[in-house]
Structure formats: C-alpha cells, structure tokens
Amino acid sequence: MNVLTGSELKKMMPLYDLYDSNQAIIYSIFENQFEGYVYTDDKDNPHWAVLRTPFLQHFIAGTPAGSCEVVIDEILFDRILAEQTEKEIAVFAVSEKWHDILNGVFENRKGVSDRRKIFEFNHDKYMRIHRRAIPDDVVSMLDLRKCSPESHIDTWSARIYVKDREVSHCNAFMIGKGMAEIDVGTDEGFQNKGYATQAAILLIDKLIETDLTPAWSTWPFRVESQHIAKKLGFDEKPDAKAWIWMENMESPVQKKEDLSCKTHWGSGSG
C-alpha cells in the first residue's frame, strides 16, 4: 500500500473520472484547496485508490484487485479512523463491485449503508425563480473569507444579519473542477423565514459571475435543505450511496438521521 500527498495526488485523478457527484469535494483536494491523502495499491500503475479528505468523507475509485477488501478495511479503520479525532467516517464509491465490498466491510464493522441526496444546478430554472425583496431590518453581506480553517484559500460567503446577529449563511465550502459545493444553515428560531434562500441567491449570483457552477448535496433527513435546492431550480439526481460508521453506534438499525447529523458537514437547515 502506498500513501500519496501533495502534488503526487494528481496521478490519481483519472481514477475519479467516473464520479458524477461530489466532484467539487473530491477536486478540492486534487486542486489543493484542502490537504488530503490517497492510499493506493500502486502509485505508478494503480488499480484502485482511497481518497482521504478532512471532511470525514472518503472516496474509493478504480477497480478492485485481489483480496483488496482486507486492505480497504485496514485503510478505513486502522489508518484513517485511528488517526481522526472524530471517530466517524462516511465512504463513497461508484461501482457495484465496490458496493459489494463495502457492504461486507461495514457489515463486519457494524456500520450502516445510507445515501446522500444530490442536486444539479439548472441555470435556466434559477434565472426564473421568484426573488423576494429583503426586509428593511435585514442586512446581507457577501465577501471572500476562509469558510473553513483548513482551507488554503478564501471562498465566497453570504450571510444574513438580523439586528446585528448573523442568523443564516451560505458558503462556497469546497471549490474544485469549476464547481462550488454549497454549505447553508440558519440558526434555530430564525428558520422558515426565507433567510437561507436569500443567502443562497446572493452566493449563487456571485458564483455564476465568477464562472463557478453551484453544487448542492445533503442527507435525506434534511428535508428543508432539499426544499431550498428545488426552490432555487436545482434538479434532483440519483442518490449517491454511502456507508457510515461512528463510535458507540447502538446497532446497525440505529436511526440514520442520528448518524448523518453527527457524521459530517452538509447543506443543512433552511
């Protein structure tokens, strides 16, 4: 097993061409916005690779070879999980062969399978959405800043303030392959008032202006996030299959929404 970092990661990019979702997340590592690692069977002629990100989401690509399920188990649980502060992981793959392998690995580890809702930006629909006027007591702000302390670059961030309090945000969290993965959220007590939608419109307008395509994904239990995506003209795509494990899981049938809300970031509450 080989571990690649820095500029060596670009050798693995062709293996990830089959991914038609999560591309901004994946390529934010390959394009050096965030630091990541790749574990592979061969750094010069790889059959498969495991991309490790700082978001607790990890991505497998390539073709299974030999008894790689043993090595994959070791990488995920004895290397990645052991070195993470937060004892939880989500793993994605795009081929049925990998799905079968991950089913076995996570069943043995008493993890669960899940899915991530994927939305694709539709520019024509977006340009036709209804835009509400911002109330007089609401202030909006858009600027470049580090939306994550681990990011090597500043990215666009939109925020909504009510009486000098930030109540909602929409950030271009990961940038890669000409796309920007969006993270949105609103404080409790201020939800269902349209603030997240206002922040998202502010951000998306700027992304379009700067030739970045917005990308939106979320967990199934985040119904409000899905509602906002559709309201903004995003088209729902097939779900991305995922496998989740976290420390102190009660059982494989533990509520998936309990897992997903703890496991990692995502386009959140409206």
Draw up the topology in text.
Layout: E1 2-4, H1 23-30, E2 37-40, E3 48-52, E4 57-62, H2 68-83, E5 88-92, H3 96-108, E6 112-120, H4 123-127, E7 138-145, E8 155-162, E9 165-176, E10 179-186, H5 195-209, E11 213-218, H6 223-231, E12 235-246, H7 256-263
Parallel strand pairs: 4-5, 10-11
Antiparallel strand pairs: 1-2, 2-3, 3-4, 5-12, 6-11, 6-12, 7-8, 8-9, 9-10
Helix pairs in contact: 2-3
Q: Any low-confidence stretches, pLDDT <50, length ≥5?
A: 251-255, 258-265
Bulk shape = elongated
What would CATH call the class of the largest domain? Alpha Beta
Number of domains: 2
The biggest beta sheet is recorded as:
12 strands, mixed
Radius of gyration: 19 Å
Quickly give the CATH architecture of the largest domain.
Answer: 3-Layer(aba) Sandwich
Structural commentary:
By secondary structure, this protein is an alpha+beta fold. The chain is 27% helix and 32% strand. It contains 7 helices and 12 strands.
Feature tags:
elongated; 12-stranded mixed sheet; Aminopeptidase; 7 helices; alpha+beta; 270 residues
Give a concise summary.
The chain has 270 residues and is an alpha+beta fold.
